Amino acid sequence: MDKVKTSLIEAEKGSQLFEIEFANQKALDELVMLPTAIRAKCFYLLERMKVDGPNLGEPFTKKIAGTGSLFEIRAKALEGIGRCIYCVCVQKRIVILHSFVKKTQKTPAKNLEIALKRYKEFINDNY
């Protein structure tokens, strides 16, 4: 019994949580400015991602087709549909690039361009 308990404790100590960070101040401000219920859902999903990793699966997260390495948090609430575009970096880092309220079926090209620009800037500044 003691061996099992010790193994579980060691496994917990050894497990690393993912770290959430923002590409820049604007990326943080965008998330904070989302409508209350959408913002709350995003924060809830980010907390889950710290423990469970960046791929929670649909309907919560999804890879964005055609972008290479970008993903989106999908937050649906009475106020609308919110998205947080993020990337995953080495050392268990989840980087939030851009957040917005989605008003159309397809993610607007402008929002993808903002996220891709911030992704490139973040990579250039940090790697």
TrEMBL record:
Name under which the protein is recorded: Type II toxin-antitoxin system RelE/ParE family toxin
InterPro entries, per database record: HigB-like (IPR009241)
Originating organism: Parasutterella muris
Domain of life: Bacteria
Phylogenetic placement of the source organism: Bacteria, Pseudomonadati, Pseudomonadota, Betaproteobacteria, Burkholderiales
